[in-house]
Amino acid sequence: MMNQDSPGAVTDSLNELIEHYSLTICAVSPDVAYGEVLAVRSFANGVLKGVGTGPRYKDLSLAVGWLSCLLGIAACDSGAHGASHVWCTDAERRSAEAGHPELAGWAVLTRSMISFYQGQPRQSALLASRGQAMTAIGTTAHAKLAAQEMRAAAMSGDIASVEKARRRATEAMSRLPSDGLTAGAFSIASGEEPPYTATSLMLLGRFEESVAATERVLRTCYQPEAQQRGEHASGYARALLILGLAHAGNGDLDEAVAAGHAALAGKRTAWPTLTLAGKLDQALERNFTNAHQVKHYRARYLEASHRLRLLGPSGG
Q1: Cβ atoms of residues 58 and 98 within 8 Å
Q2: CA-to-CA separations, 282 to 58, 111, 209, 256, in angstroms, rounded
Q3: Over the range 152-162, which residues count as b (16 or more CB within 10 Å of their CB) and which as e?
Q4: Which end of the chain is more exposed for a tag (fewer CB within 10 A), N or C?
Q5: Residues lower than pLDDT 70 in the chain
Q6: Model-level pTM greater than 0.85?
Q7: Which one, of 98, 51, 50, 93, lies nearest residue 68 by Cα?
Q8: How many domains is the chain partitioned into structurally?
Q9: Residue 54 structural domain
Q10: How far is 115 from 275, CA to CA, in rounded Å?
């Protein structure tokens, strides 16, 4: 399918592959996803160079940009932050060329998430705010960026900014089309609350509310059939870890450890997931220092961390 001579046919094939990888990139191993998408992008870039400034250039360049955005996500999940920023910058540039701001919004979201998981909430919030200014309300990217700003503000402990961002996220969610994507890298989970509400509550120390909110997310967004297909492998694991952190903050040792073990039982190891798993390890050690369950969880966490170190993007 990728050996078509017509640039239009190549663009159509690339868009099919972009749709495929946007649905699977959060379910397969990050290094596998990176290698496969990189191969497709290298091919697409070669075709793009041959097109020159012809009428198909913008369409092909936009497809290359979406592939760069996917590479940014895969590199982020592998813990290769420098590579992720490079790919996201390329996606932003091609977004500007094609006049398609939503692509830039998704690239900025990846960069904002990296800052968040690196413990840089102000930088994360600034990026999320910038991404919202780029994108139109009513787009999934805009709503996701508003929710991202909310949890970044929560990490800073800025309650007023959390509430402002939450109102913006709620409004953005209400403006989304009813047929929007609910699975994949460029999607948003449907629900009464904006994404990351449970995380924000946990970061603000409202642990009982966070437990209730996370359990709602697990019921509505990560139903058994979706778990079996692996559609949301990373999101499911992270939701479990937020649940574990909320239980730990609430003093519920057994529930916290159970959630942590369930999160690390998944086959997909990703850097943001391991970052949260490390936070849970610290919380358990701080709150339940001598409990044997804490030692068992730490062993599981260190094993998963070792697996991630063995992975990584297989190209530049």
Answers
A1: yes
A2: 48, 25, 21, 12
A3: bbbbeebeebb
A4: C
A5: 1-5, 54, 223-232, 310-316
A6: yes
A7: 93
A8: 3
A9: 1-80+88-99
A10: 12
